[in-house]
Design goal:
The protein has four domains: 9-30 and 92-190, no CATH class; 37-91, no CATH class; 199-217 and 280-357, no CATH class; 225-277, no CATH class. It contains 16 helices and twelve strands. The chain has helices at residues 18-27, 37-40, 45-53, 59-65, 73-91, 136-141, 152-161, 176-190, 206-216, 225-228, 233-241, 247-253, 261-279, 312-317, 325-328, 340-349; strands at 9-15, 95-102, 108-119, 127-135, 166-167, 199-203, 283-289, 297-303, 321-324, 332-333, 338-339, 354-357. A five-stranded antiparallel beta sheet has the order 4-3-2-1-5, with helices on both faces. Strand 2 (95-102) and strand 3 (108-119) form a beta hairpin.
Length: 358
């Protein structure tokens, strides 16, 4: 699979206005966290924020060494809030890159999208920090929470059709790196569906899959006793599932009473559970090259439960996530003391995996 761009493939850049940004954030459930009453009572907010911004792991030690005394429950609650705030801030985006492929005449299909945060967008030397990659399957299944109903794919198509997106396909400047990465990711994600001849795909056995899963999946959150004591679990889950950012107001509008600390704890738990669910997977497939002297891992397809042979094609056609080889090289497999890419290459060389395509 060469790096040359398919003439039918186009790349669009969409700079979001304030209204679009709000709608996209709501759709992707990027909800700004709010400090609890306990967090607000902390008298060490500034030094805790400073420590976390510097990447400090041992807050209690940091506070003592800087003459701020010992941490109490209010400080610990503020630290939990600020960590959530950092994560929210790092996920925000104001730009979307969309990769499409022509079908016939004026019709096109969206292959994937990349969210990013553009600093100084009005200047020539704008800087882009890329946030997340969303494949076509996710774009099609995610409900758009803007003005016009439909999926996120539908909204992106509307933006492109009404020419509110910049066609950057032929630009020789940045973001050429992300263009190359996303073209490679899209090719891998759709390789089996498009019957690509120069790749092969291998399934990973159960024990080895557990190693891969542990390396890529966020930790499963546990429900605290306070969260479990909430009596508003159903309406909180309903509000979050519908993309509501202000759960307290949502509960009141639906005839509920004021949220207490147990309810806020359950809201926190359920939002973390959603992130875990979005990040986890139940099957993984290694993609390698073919017709070469040595086999090289090109990437990894991750998906939900697959029961061969009836659902194997669905898994290969519509992966939940697609990782490039260089992304696997940045992930550490703690139990094996090596990178994920090295581990996958070992599995292929040991003939541990079963070939499922072609």
């Amino acid at each position: 699979m060469n790096e040359r761009t398919n003439s039918n493939t186009r790349i669009y850049k969409i700079m979001l206005d304030a209204e679009q940004e709000e709608a996209f954030h709501k759709t992707f459930k990027l909800i700004e966290p709010k400090p609890t009453l306990e967090a607000k009572k902390s008298k060490k907010k500034d030094i805790i924020s400073e420590a976390l911004d510097e990447g400090e792991k041992d807050l209690a030690r940091y506070l003592k060494e800087n003459g701020a005394g010992t941490m109490n429950e209010f400080d610990a609650e503020y630290a939990r809030f600020y960590i959530q705030y950092q994560a929210w801030k790092n996920e925000q985006f104001n730009c979307v890159y969309v990769i499409t492929i022509a079908k016939k005449r004026d019709e096109f299909t969206i292959l994937s999208a990349v969210t990013g945060f553009v600093s100084h967008p009005s200047q020539k030397q704008e800087q882009v920090e890329f946030r997340a990659i969303i494949i076509s399957k996710q774009l099609d299944s995610l409900n758009w929470l803007g003005t016009i109903p439909g999926s996120v794919s539908d909204e992106l198509k509307r933006i492109i059709i009404r020419m509110d997106a910049e066609d950057i396909t032929t630009l020789p400047t940045r973001p050429s790196r992300v263009q190359r990465d996303e073209m490679a990711r899209s090719r891998l994600a759709h390789a089996v569906e498009q019957n690509v001849k120069d790749i092969q795909v291998f399934s990973i056995p159960y024990e080895e899959f557990q190693v891969v899963h542990a390396s890529l999946t966020p930790s499963n959150p546990t429900m605290t006793a306070e969260a479990n004591a909430s009596r508003k679990k159903d309406i909180i889950m309903e509000g979050i599932d519908e993309g509501e950012s202000d759960i307290a107001t949502y509960i009141k509008l639906n005839g509920g009473s004021q949220m207490n600390n147990n309810d806020r704890e359950f809201e926190k738990y359920y939002r973390m559970l959603q992130k875990y669910t979005d990040g986890t997977f139940e099957s993984a497939y290694i993609i390698t090259n073919k017709f070469t002297s040595s086999i090289e891992v090109l990437g990894l397809l991750l998906n939900g439960i697959c029961i061969p042979p009836t659902k194997i094609k669905d898994c290969l056609h519509n992966p939940k996530r697609t990782l490039l080889a260089k992304e696997c090289a940045l992930t550490t497999v703690q139990s094996q003391h090596c990178t994920l890419l090295d581990y996958l290459n070992k599995l292929i060389k040991k003939s541990t995996c079963k070939k499922v395509y072609p």
